[in-house]
Amino acid sequence: MSRTIYLLRHGQTKFNLERRMQGHCDSALTELGVAQARAMGATLRAELGSLDNWQVFASPLGRTMQTAELVCAELGLASRCIQPEPRLIESRFWRLGAAASSNSAYAISSLSNATGLAFSSAGL
C-alpha cells in the first residue's frame, strides 16, 4: 500500500518580508502569510477529498503551528489534530546545497520513524 506525504512550508513571516534569517527564532505570519496558509488548505481540500486516516505533523515553532492551524481550518480539521514534531524544526537538514539529497532523506527517515509509516525518499 502506498502512502502520500505533503510537505508544506510556513506562510510568509515578518522576518521573511524583511529578508531576515529566522532559524529557531520566530516571527508571526504576515497578512500574505495567513492568505498563503489558507490557500494551501483550500488546495489540499480540493486535492484530498476524504480526510480519513490523514495525519498532520508540524514543527512546534509558532509560525509553523500557525500555518498548520490555518491549513487545518480550511480542511475542516480541529487544530488539536496537529502533532508537534520537534524533528521538523528548521535546521541544517533543510538547507539547499550539495548535501540536500542526503539531508532530505534523513528528514524523511526521521519522520518515518516518528510516525511508524514508511515514506519513500526516492528522487530527493
Describe the structure.
By secondary structure, the protein is mainly alpha-helical. It has a domain at 14-87. Helices cover 42% and strands 5% of the residues. The chain has four helices and two strands, in the order H-H-E-H-E-H. Helix 2 packs across helix 3.
Summarize the structure.
The chain has helices at 14-17, 31-48, 62-75, 100-115, and strands at 56-58, 82-84. The protein is mainly alpha-helical.
> In what range is the share of β-strand residues?
under 5%
Classify the helix fraction into a percent range: 40-55%
Strand arrangement in the largest pleated sheet: 1-2
Topology order in helix (H) and strand (E) letters: HHEHEH
Global morphology: globular
For the sheet with most strands, the description reads: 2 strands, parallel
What is the SS-derived class? mainly alpha
**Number of distinct helices:** 4
Number of strands: 2
Evaluate the radius of gyration.
15 Å
Low-confidence regions = 93-104, 119-124
End-to-end span in angstroms?
Answer: 21 Å
Overall pLDDT score: 76
Topology of helices and strands:
Layout: H1 14-17, H2 31-48, E1 56-58, H3 62-75, E2 82-84, H4 100-115
Parallel strand pairs: 1-2
Helix pairs in contact: 2-3
